[in-house]
Amino acid sequence: MSIAIQITYLISSIFFIYGIKKLSSPKTARKGNLYSATGMLLAIVVTLLDQNVLTYEWIIIGGVIGSLIGAVLALKIKMTGMPQMVGLLNGFGGGASLLVALSEYYKITYAMPLNTGVAILLSLLIGSVTFTGSLIAFGKLQGIVTGKVVHYPGQHLINVLLFIFVIGAGVYLLMNPANVTLILIITGVSLVLGILLVLPIGGADMPVAVSLLNSYSGLAAATTGFILENNVLIIAGALVGASGIILTLIMCRGMNRSLMNVVLGGWANAGATDGASGEGDGPKGDVKSVDAEELAMILEVASNVIIVPGYGMAVAQAQHAVRELMLALEDKDINVRFAVHPVAGRMPGHMNVLLAEANVPYDKLFALEDINNDFANTDVAIVIGANDVVNPAARNDKSSPIYGMPILNVDYAKTVVINKRSLNPGYAGIANELFFGDNSLMFFGDAKDAIGKLTSEIKNL
Amino acid sequence: MDVTNFLMLVYVFVLAIFVGFELITKVPPTLHTPLMSGSNAISGITIVGALLSAGAEEFTISTILGLIAVIFAMINVVGGYLVTDRMLKMFKKR
Q1: Using an 8 Å Cβ cutoff, are B21 and A339 in contact?
Q2: Greater pLDDT, A112 or A34
Q3: Of A381, A365, A379, the residue nearest A307 (C-alpha)
């Protein structure tokens, strides 16, 4: 029996690996997710047959409650709320690891072997940090917790001290395994650490934070695997851990910042000082604005248009309006493409999901490195709710906090249209010289309304 | 757990990380959100540990913790796979 269970776990692992492999193309991705879910189902069913599982009533009740909550969340959430959703689910994964670790501790308190003890403590630490950290990330994305960068005196020192405390207390616990109070204190401190680590991170840095927490949730599952000596947990956890780390690095590269810098909340700090020094430092000049009617006439004579969506599009829920604009332009035989910056939005791939929801075909969406050279041959670039990711200061201004960050070169297009509600600087608090460019036109207004008006003007031509 | 056993687990962990890196680097940026929610659902594999904890015969603190873990892990698993499927359904070519 035990051998049959082990072999089934192996088959589960293969399903997970094969499922992720199928994610390499949008054509096969849905099937891949199904494979992965099948692997999970197999693992669950076979675990229920394990000789250590003796009572089923509570498991069934718990399983049904969890499934219902999960299903309701998954089916009710709006696509614009996806970053919060991922954050929240992450938290539950981390929470489950933390609870399993505690539960295992209570089972074997007096006879805890050293390596199991280490695994329990690691699982407890990583699971706790993932749990509260993800809840804070969820709160920030949902707007319950401030999206601003939070600074308080001695913040890094406090984190370091708490971390050292957890390690020290952990070592003590390994020598005195029966100290139940201590493990509860360790859990409590780890939970606080999760809050303190994510709280300082600003809203626009959330793609990094969410990716990192994703990685932690995988590592937490893997450490649970070390506790239970179960390979399927270790393999699945390692896959997720690797995935989260890769996304984290891609996001950091997209901002030209080190992971350390993001985690410590550094950039926005610099940005805030710049902003505070007043408008005197920012680029000056005349801003030309344009209304929907004029803009429609400019677009009418264009043959190539690139649309650059940003977080502003998500906030205004303008993705459907943007698709209408695409269709109207294509009706006039204008070639329309989308350029998506890696850190546009609040999580990796945020813009792609929103546009997919609005039925924009994915082969119209291009990553930065695939489209950046085409701006020079583009008649009109339309920036919708993006700011820092198109700021030429990242190329030109060595003193700018975002200098060196890869940006979409919209300013190379013959005409750049920037749809924004006002001239206010973006998240980083950095003035954007793009708005003052000779070929730049500001198209003020809420993205949904303004793009809607523009589309009807184009249709009227 | 003896040392050889433990080392075998470390082997599996390290090799799986390499497999993960190979696979994930091939996922196109357009699918990064579903990748995240899908891998999130995979991390719900902790359900295995939760079931083992919650299924014990006597009702102890350990079982109660396991039971809450079952609820948490199932939210993660069911929510993660469903929401990923919902997203992937939308990705269409012209």
Answers
A1: no
A2: A34
A3: A381
Contact B35 A349 (CB under 8 A): yes
Selecting from A54, A238, A247 the residue whose C-beta is nearest the C-beta of B13 gives A238
Contact B85 A210 (CB under 8 A): no
Alpha-carbon distance A419 to nearest alpha carbon in chain B (angstroms): 23
H or E element: which one contains A15? helix A2-21
CA–CA distance, A282 with A295 (Å, rounded to integer): 27
Q: Does the interface ipTM go beyond 0.90?
A: yes
A-chain residues near B6 (CB < 8 A): 115, 226
Residue of B nearest to A131 (CA): B72
DSSP annotation of A309: E
Q: A120 by DSSP, 3-state: which?
A: helix
Q: How confident is the model at residue A68 (pLDDT cuts 50, 70, 90)?
A: very high
Which tokens hold the place of A93? 């994964």
What does residue A307 show for φ and ψ, rounded to 5 degrees? Answer: -100, 130
Question: Which of B36, B37, B84 has the highest number of chain A CBs within 10 A, making it the mutation to test binding with A?
Answer: B36
Structure tokens given for A235 = 């393999």
pLDDT tens across A197-254, in order?
999 888 888 889 999 999 999 999 999 999 999 999 999 999 999 999 999 999 999 9
C-alpha distances in angstroms, A434 versus B49, B55, B79? 54, 62, 42
For residues A202 and A427, give the distance between their C-alpha atoms in angstroms, rounded to a whole number.
Answer: 9
Q: How far is B46 from chain A (nearest CA, A)?
A: 5
Query: Nearest Cα to A401, choosing from A308, A197, A265, A285?
Result: A265
A411 is annotated as an active-site residue: no
C-alpha closest to that of A232 among B52, B16, B69: B16
